[in-house]
Amino acid sequence: MKAALHKSEIPLSHIFVIRRLQEKYFDPVWHAHSEYQLFVVLEGTGTRFIGDSIKAFKPGELIFTGPHLPHLWRSDEAYFNKKSTLRTDGIVIYFNEHFLGEHIMEKEEMTVLKKLFTRAMRGLEFEGAPRTDIIRMMQELVHLQGIQSVVQLLRILELMAGTKAFRYISSRPYEDEYDQHETDRLNIVYDYVLKHFRRKIALEELAELLHMTPTSFSRYFTIKNNKPFSRFVSEIRIKHACKLLTETDDPIAHICYECGFNTLSNFNKQFKEVVLKTPAEYKHEFLSI
């Protein structure tokens, strides 16, 4: 699986790049790049990986990430079915920190924007009314050109910099560039786990895929993902369980086994550790919204 570390590289003739992404599924490759990225999901569901965070995504999600923060919006398996009529839709904006000039970020007028860029190194998820306004402005920006497009981008950044309606995503920033080899290896792991999480996955399986010993793989994965491999698999299963709890009427016991857990008690325990609620509490809270 070939990584695309710099797929978003901005042409020298442009200040920024904006793209409308309308495909069968979002890019399934875990990657990082040197640009800031603002991305909104307009259509599609799946699992989102940003830094060391794992979460289900759905339409309306608005995310701002800084340079070198690895990320992946992995569409649900149904989107990869050749006979599927499902589609994804989104808007992405890429720009560099010095998109307005080499030294402008040092000026007093840019202090608030500089703070926004610092926060983005952990990834930001916007909420509430500001999110709605930013998405609308991004949809307008798709159709603008020239100076009007730059002014619109600045308005978006001003709104993002001035709001407190956001949440940090990753527990830590990722300041080092991901090289090709590391990205390829992690893509193998992510792809394998997402396809097989419904059954027991032995550490030896992944170690063999990466030509490592189980001990070496365990140490490697923990360093790169800021969590043990077992925790990573558990989070994948629990995020899928959250989706089933809110989108189906399946009994909790059925969802437990559907997501790869062997016992209901272990499912309840691990679910509460990650979500801070039991599956029953989570479902009840969703239904009462």
UniProtKB/TrEMBL annotation:
The answer on whether this UniProt entry bears the keyword Lipid metabolism reads no
Q: Does the keyword Signal apply?
A: no
| Any GO MF annotation of the entry | sequence-specific DNA binding
Q: Which SMART domains match?
A: HTH_ARAC
List the Pfam families. Answer: Cupin_2, HTH_18
InterPro entries given for it?
A: Cupin_2, Homeodomain-like_sf, HTH_AraC, RmlC-like_jellyroll, RmlC_Cupin_sf
Limits of the HTH araC/xylS-type domain? 187-285
- Superkingdom of the source? Bacteria
Gene3D superfamilies in alphabetical order: Homeodomain-like, Jelly Rolls
The alphabetical list of record keywords is: DNA-binding, Transcription, Transcription regulation
- This chain belongs to which protein, by name? AraC family transcriptional regulator
What lineage is on file?
Answer: Bacteria, Pseudomonadati, Bacteroidota, Chitinophagia, Chitinophagales
